[in-house]
Input
Amino acid sequence: MNAAAAEEALRLCLAGRISPEVALARMVLAGLPPEAIEERLSALPAGNGREGALAGLHRTSRGGLEAVRAMLAEARLDHTAAADHESPEALVARVAAAYDRAVAVAPEASVAAYSLNDPAVLAAATREIVAWLADEALIRPDRDVLDLGCGIGRVAAALAPRCRSVLGLDASPRMVAEALRRHGSVPNLRFGTTPGTDLAALAAASFDLVLAVDSFPYVVQAGGAVADRHLEDAARAVRRGGAFAILNLSYRGDLEADRADAKRWAVAGGWTLAVDGARPFALWDGTAFLLRRP
Ligand SMILES: C[S@@+](CC[C@H](N)C(=O)[O-])C[C@H]1O[C@@H](n2cnc3c(N)ncnc32)[C@H](O)[C@@H]1O
Output
Protein backbone atom coordinates (compact mmCIF):
# COMPACT_ATOMS: atom_id res chain seq x y z
CA MET A 1 0.00 0.00 0.00
CA ASN A 2 1.30 3.45 -0.91
CA ALA A 3 -0.35 5.67 1.72
CA ALA A 4 1.65 8.73 0.62
CA ALA A 5 0.29 8.46 -2.94
CA ALA A 6 -3.27 8.21 -1.57
CA GLU A 7 -2.74 11.29 0.64
CA GLU A 8 -1.31 13.20 -2.33
CA ALA A 9 -4.40 12.31 -4.39
CA LEU A 10 -6.62 13.65 -1.61
CA ARG A 11 -4.59 16.84 -1.32
CA LEU A 12 -4.68 17.51 -5.06
CA CYS A 13 -8.42 16.86 -5.20
CA LEU A 14 -9.20 19.15 -2.26
CA ALA A 15 -7.04 21.83 -3.94
CA GLY A 16 -9.13 21.45 -7.12
CA ARG A 17 -6.21 20.14 -9.16
CA ILE A 18 -7.63 16.70 -9.96
CA SER A 19 -11.21 15.50 -10.20
CA PRO A 20 -12.87 13.38 -7.49
CA GLU A 21 -12.98 10.51 -10.02
CA VAL A 22 -9.20 10.63 -10.54
CA ALA A 23 -8.61 11.00 -6.78
CA LEU A 24 -10.69 7.91 -5.92
CA ALA A 25 -9.03 5.90 -8.70
CA ARG A 26 -5.60 6.93 -7.42
CA MET A 27 -6.52 5.86 -3.89
CA VAL A 28 -7.50 2.42 -5.18
CA LEU A 29 -4.38 2.24 -7.38
CA ALA A 30 -2.35 3.10 -4.26
CA GLY A 31 -3.73 -0.08 -2.71
CA LEU A 32 -5.94 1.51 -0.03
CA PRO A 33 -8.56 -1.03 1.12
CA PRO A 34 -12.26 0.03 1.08
CA GLU A 35 -12.48 0.59 4.83
CA ALA A 36 -9.37 2.81 4.82
CA ILE A 37 -10.84 5.00 2.06
CA GLU A 38 -14.14 5.17 3.95
CA GLU A 39 -12.38 6.15 7.16
CA ARG A 40 -10.13 8.74 5.51
CA LEU A 41 -13.01 10.43 3.66
CA SER A 42 -15.27 10.55 6.69
CA ALA A 43 -12.47 12.24 8.68
CA LEU A 44 -12.13 15.12 6.20
CA PRO A 45 -13.06 18.45 7.76
CA ALA A 46 -15.68 20.59 6.00
CA GLY A 47 -13.97 23.01 3.62
CA ASN A 48 -14.74 24.37 0.18
CA GLY A 49 -17.24 21.67 -0.79
CA ARG A 50 -14.77 19.45 -2.63
CA GLU A 51 -14.65 17.06 0.33
CA GLY A 52 -18.43 16.72 0.04
CA ALA A 53 -18.18 16.02 -3.70
CA LEU A 54 -15.54 13.37 -3.03
CA ALA A 55 -17.54 11.72 -0.26
CA GLY A 56 -20.70 11.86 -2.41
CA LEU A 57 -18.97 10.23 -5.37
CA HIS A 58 -17.52 7.61 -3.06
CA ARG A 59 -21.00 6.76 -1.72
CA THR A 60 -22.41 6.21 -5.21
CA SER A 61 -19.34 4.45 -6.64
CA ARG A 62 -18.66 1.57 -4.26
CA GLY A 63 -19.45 -0.98 -6.96
CA GLY A 64 -17.25 0.86 -9.43
CA LEU A 65 -14.35 0.98 -6.99
CA GLU A 66 -14.74 -2.77 -6.44
CA ALA A 67 -14.64 -3.26 -10.22
CA VAL A 68 -11.42 -1.22 -10.44
CA ARG A 69 -9.91 -3.31 -7.61
CA ALA A 70 -10.91 -6.57 -9.28
CA MET A 71 -9.57 -5.38 -12.64
CA LEU A 72 -6.22 -4.35 -11.13
CA ALA A 73 -5.88 -7.64 -9.24
CA GLU A 74 -6.56 -9.66 -12.37
CA ALA A 75 -4.42 -7.51 -14.73
CA ARG A 76 -1.32 -7.35 -12.50
CA LEU A 77 -0.11 -4.45 -14.64
CA ASP A 78 3.05 -2.69 -13.57
CA HIS A 79 4.60 0.46 -14.93
CA THR A 80 8.25 -0.29 -14.34
CA ALA A 81 10.63 -0.01 -17.27
CA ALA A 82 11.72 -3.13 -19.12
CA ALA A 83 14.17 -5.16 -17.04
CA ASP A 84 17.65 -5.64 -18.52
CA HIS A 85 16.87 -9.18 -19.59
CA GLU A 86 13.46 -8.29 -21.07
CA SER A 87 13.26 -7.55 -24.79
CA PRO A 88 10.86 -4.85 -26.05
CA GLU A 89 8.81 -7.62 -27.69
CA ALA A 90 8.55 -9.48 -24.37
CA LEU A 91 7.52 -6.32 -22.53
CA VAL A 92 4.83 -5.49 -25.11
CA ALA A 93 3.54 -9.07 -24.87
CA ARG A 94 3.43 -8.81 -21.05
CA VAL A 95 1.52 -5.50 -21.17
CA ALA A 96 -0.85 -6.79 -23.87
CA ALA A 97 -1.58 -9.92 -21.80
CA ALA A 98 -2.32 -7.73 -18.77
CA TYR A 99 -4.79 -5.68 -20.83
CA ASP A 100 -6.30 -8.88 -22.23
CA ARG A 101 -7.07 -9.90 -18.65
CA ALA A 102 -8.19 -6.41 -17.56
CA VAL A 103 -10.76 -5.90 -20.31
CA ALA A 104 -12.41 -9.21 -19.48
CA VAL A 105 -13.06 -8.04 -15.90
CA ALA A 106 -14.11 -4.39 -16.23
CA PRO A 107 -13.97 -2.91 -19.76
CA GLU A 108 -14.50 0.77 -18.92
CA ALA A 109 -12.12 0.69 -15.95
CA SER A 110 -9.54 -1.21 -18.01
CA VAL A 111 -9.04 1.78 -20.33
CA ALA A 112 -9.55 4.49 -17.70
CA ALA A 113 -9.49 3.54 -14.01
CA TYR A 114 -10.94 6.97 -13.15
CA SER A 115 -14.15 6.03 -15.00
CA LEU A 116 -14.77 3.79 -11.99
CA ASN A 117 -16.13 1.41 -14.63
CA ASP A 118 -19.10 3.73 -15.25
CA PRO A 119 -19.88 4.11 -18.99
CA ALA A 120 -21.35 7.60 -18.35
CA VAL A 121 -18.13 8.85 -16.70
CA LEU A 122 -16.04 7.34 -19.51
CA ALA A 123 -18.30 9.02 -22.09
CA ALA A 124 -17.85 12.39 -20.34
CA ALA A 125 -14.06 11.93 -20.38
CA THR A 126 -14.20 10.99 -24.07
CA ARG A 127 -16.20 14.17 -24.80
CA GLU A 128 -13.52 16.37 -23.26
CA ILE A 129 -10.82 14.67 -25.33
CA VAL A 130 -12.84 15.12 -28.54
CA ALA A 131 -13.55 18.78 -27.64
CA TRP A 132 -9.81 19.41 -27.22
CA LEU A 133 -9.04 17.76 -30.57
CA ALA A 134 -11.73 19.94 -32.18
CA ASP A 135 -10.30 23.10 -30.55
CA GLU A 136 -6.92 22.18 -32.03
CA ALA A 137 -8.62 21.84 -35.45
CA LEU A 138 -7.49 18.21 -35.68
CA ILE A 139 -10.82 16.62 -36.64
CA ARG A 140 -12.63 17.34 -39.91
CA PRO A 141 -14.70 15.32 -42.38
CA ASP A 142 -11.69 15.05 -44.74
CA ARG A 143 -9.31 13.64 -42.11
CA ASP A 144 -7.98 10.09 -41.69
CA VAL A 145 -7.16 9.25 -38.09
CA LEU A 146 -5.10 6.52 -36.43
CA ASP A 147 -6.01 5.84 -32.78
CA LEU A 148 -2.93 4.05 -31.41
CA GLY A 149 -3.62 1.87 -28.37
CA CYS A 150 -7.35 2.27 -28.97
CA GLY A 151 -8.50 -0.06 -26.19
CA ILE A 152 -12.24 -0.73 -26.39
CA GLY A 153 -12.54 1.88 -29.15
CA ARG A 154 -14.33 4.64 -27.23
CA VAL A 155 -12.29 7.54 -28.70
CA ALA A 156 -12.15 6.03 -32.20
CA ALA A 157 -15.95 5.58 -32.18
CA ALA A 158 -16.49 9.16 -31.01
CA LEU A 159 -14.26 10.46 -33.84
CA ALA A 160 -15.68 8.32 -36.66
CA PRO A 161 -18.80 10.47 -37.31
CA ARG A 162 -16.58 13.58 -37.62
CA CYS A 163 -13.73 12.19 -39.76
CA ARG A 164 -13.33 10.42 -43.12
CA SER A 165 -11.89 7.28 -41.56
CA VAL A 166 -10.58 6.04 -38.24
CA LEU A 167 -8.29 3.07 -37.68
CA GLY A 168 -7.92 1.81 -34.11
CA LEU A 169 -4.85 -0.32 -33.39
CA ASP A 170 -3.97 -2.03 -30.14
CA ALA A 171 -1.36 -4.52 -28.92
CA SER A 172 -4.00 -6.44 -26.94
CA PRO A 173 -6.08 -8.83 -29.08
CA ARG A 174 -8.90 -8.88 -26.51
CA MET A 175 -9.11 -5.09 -26.54
CA VAL A 176 -9.44 -5.23 -30.32
CA ALA A 177 -12.11 -7.93 -30.02
CA GLU A 178 -14.06 -5.78 -27.54
CA ALA A 179 -13.73 -2.71 -29.79
CA LEU A 180 -15.05 -4.75 -32.71
CA ARG A 181 -17.91 -6.12 -30.62
CA ARG A 182 -18.94 -2.59 -29.65
CA HIS A 183 -18.28 -0.68 -32.87
CA GLY A 184 -17.55 -3.22 -35.61
CA SER A 185 -20.53 -2.17 -37.73
CA VAL A 186 -19.47 1.49 -38.17
CA PRO A 187 -18.52 1.74 -41.86
CA ASN A 188 -15.56 4.18 -41.66
CA LEU A 189 -14.12 2.63 -38.51
CA ARG A 190 -11.67 -0.29 -38.54
CA PHE A 191 -9.76 -2.04 -35.77
CA GLY A 192 -6.70 -4.27 -35.75
CA THR A 193 -3.70 -5.36 -33.74
CA THR A 194 -0.28 -3.72 -33.85
CA PRO A 195 3.04 -5.35 -32.90
CA GLY A 196 3.58 -2.57 -30.33
CA THR A 197 7.26 -2.12 -31.16
CA ASP A 198 6.88 0.04 -34.28
CA LEU A 199 4.41 1.42 -36.82
CA ALA A 200 6.36 0.15 -39.84
CA ALA A 201 3.24 -1.35 -41.43
CA LEU A 202 1.63 2.06 -41.96
CA ALA A 203 1.74 3.36 -45.53
CA ALA A 204 3.51 6.67 -46.17
CA ALA A 205 1.32 9.80 -45.98
CA SER A 206 -1.79 7.80 -45.04
CA PHE A 207 -3.05 9.70 -41.96
CA ASP A 208 -3.78 13.29 -40.96
CA LEU A 209 -3.76 12.56 -37.26
CA VAL A 210 -2.11 9.92 -35.11
CA LEU A 211 -3.57 9.94 -31.63
CA ALA A 212 -2.33 8.06 -28.58
CA VAL A 213 -4.67 8.38 -25.57
CA ASP A 214 -2.95 7.01 -22.47
CA SER A 215 -1.17 4.34 -24.53
CA PHE A 216 2.18 5.99 -25.24
CA PRO A 217 3.45 5.38 -21.68
CA TYR A 218 3.63 1.68 -22.62
CA VAL A 219 5.55 2.47 -25.80
CA VAL A 220 8.02 4.48 -23.68
CA GLN A 221 8.09 1.66 -21.13
CA ALA A 222 9.19 -0.72 -23.92
CA GLY A 223 12.36 1.36 -24.32
CA GLY A 224 13.68 4.57 -25.84
CA ALA A 225 14.41 2.90 -29.16
CA VAL A 226 10.79 1.69 -29.42
CA ALA A 227 9.42 5.19 -28.76
CA ASP A 228 11.89 6.74 -31.22
CA ARG A 229 10.85 4.19 -33.88
CA HIS A 230 7.16 5.04 -33.36
CA LEU A 231 7.94 8.72 -33.89
CA GLU A 232 9.99 7.99 -37.03
CA ASP A 233 7.25 5.79 -38.47
CA ALA A 234 4.58 8.35 -37.56
CA ALA A 235 6.56 11.12 -39.27
CA ARG A 236 6.43 9.01 -42.44
CA ALA A 237 2.76 8.06 -42.09
CA VAL A 238 1.40 11.53 -41.26
CA ARG A 239 0.67 13.81 -44.20
CA ARG A 240 1.95 17.38 -44.40
CA GLY A 241 -0.26 19.58 -42.25
CA GLY A 242 -1.06 16.59 -40.03
CA ALA A 243 -0.26 15.94 -36.38
CA PHE A 244 0.64 13.42 -33.70
CA ALA A 245 -1.24 13.99 -30.42
CA ILE A 246 0.14 12.19 -27.38
CA LEU A 247 -2.11 12.34 -24.33
CA ASN A 248 0.08 11.11 -21.48
CA LEU A 249 3.58 10.54 -22.76
CA SER A 250 4.94 8.41 -19.92
CA TYR A 251 4.24 7.33 -16.35
CA ARG A 252 7.66 8.49 -15.13
CA GLY A 253 6.04 11.29 -13.14
CA ASP A 254 8.62 13.71 -14.54
CA LEU A 255 7.10 16.35 -16.79
CA GLU A 256 10.47 17.83 -17.68
CA ALA A 257 11.74 14.43 -18.87
CA ASP A 258 8.57 14.09 -20.99
CA ARG A 259 9.12 17.58 -22.41
CA ALA A 260 12.75 16.75 -23.22
CA ASP A 261 11.62 13.65 -25.16
CA ALA A 262 8.93 15.61 -27.02
CA LYS A 263 11.43 18.31 -27.96
CA ARG A 264 13.98 15.75 -29.14
CA TRP A 265 11.34 13.96 -31.28
CA ALA A 266 10.19 17.30 -32.72
CA VAL A 267 13.72 18.24 -33.78
CA ALA A 268 14.55 14.78 -35.14
CA GLY A 269 11.32 14.41 -37.13
CA GLY A 270 10.80 17.96 -38.34
CA TRP A 271 7.66 18.36 -36.21
CA THR A 272 6.59 21.61 -34.54
CA LEU A 273 5.91 21.11 -30.84
CA ALA A 274 2.61 22.99 -30.60
CA VAL A 275 1.47 21.79 -27.16
CA ASP A 276 4.16 20.93 -24.63
CA GLY A 277 2.76 19.12 -21.62
CA ALA A 278 -0.47 21.07 -21.03
CA ARG A 279 -3.27 19.80 -18.75
CA PRO A 280 -6.35 20.66 -20.84
CA PHE A 281 -8.91 18.35 -19.21
CA ALA A 282 -11.14 18.73 -16.12
CA LEU A 283 -12.24 15.14 -15.52
CA TRP A 284 -9.10 13.31 -16.68
CA ASP A 285 -5.65 14.36 -15.46
CA GLY A 286 -3.98 13.52 -18.80
CA THR A 287 -1.07 15.62 -20.08
CA ALA A 288 -1.15 16.74 -23.71
CA PHE A 289 1.67 16.93 -26.24
CA LEU A 290 0.95 17.93 -29.82
CA LEU A 291 3.45 17.56 -32.65
CA ARG A 292 2.42 19.21 -35.89
CA ARG A 293 3.91 18.34 -39.26
CA PRO A 294 4.47 21.57 -41.25
C1 LIG B 1 -5.00 2.84 -20.61
S1 LIG B 1 -5.48 1.96 -22.04
C2 LIG B 1 -6.13 3.28 -23.05
C3 LIG B 1 -7.01 2.79 -24.17
C4 LIG B 1 -7.63 3.86 -25.05
N1 LIG B 1 -6.64 4.68 -25.69
C5 LIG B 1 -8.56 4.74 -24.23
O1 LIG B 1 -8.11 5.81 -23.79
O2 LIG B 1 -9.70 4.36 -24.07
C6 LIG B 1 -3.93 1.61 -22.82
C7 LIG B 1 -4.07 0.80 -24.07
O3 LIG B 1 -2.81 0.76 -24.74
C8 LIG B 1 -2.62 -0.54 -25.26
N2 LIG B 1 -1.17 -0.74 -25.47
C9 LIG B 1 -0.22 -1.00 -24.55
N3 LIG B 1 0.98 -1.06 -25.13
C10 LIG B 1 0.80 -0.81 -26.45
C11 LIG B 1 1.66 -0.71 -27.58
N4 LIG B 1 2.99 -0.86 -27.45
N5 LIG B 1 1.12 -0.46 -28.79
C12 LIG B 1 -0.22 -0.30 -28.92
N6 LIG B 1 -1.09 -0.40 -27.90
C13 LIG B 1 -0.58 -0.62 -26.67
C14 LIG B 1 -3.22 -1.44 -24.22
O4 LIG B 1 -3.50 -2.73 -24.72
C15 LIG B 1 -4.48 -0.64 -23.84
O5 LIG B 1 -5.56 -0.97 -24.65
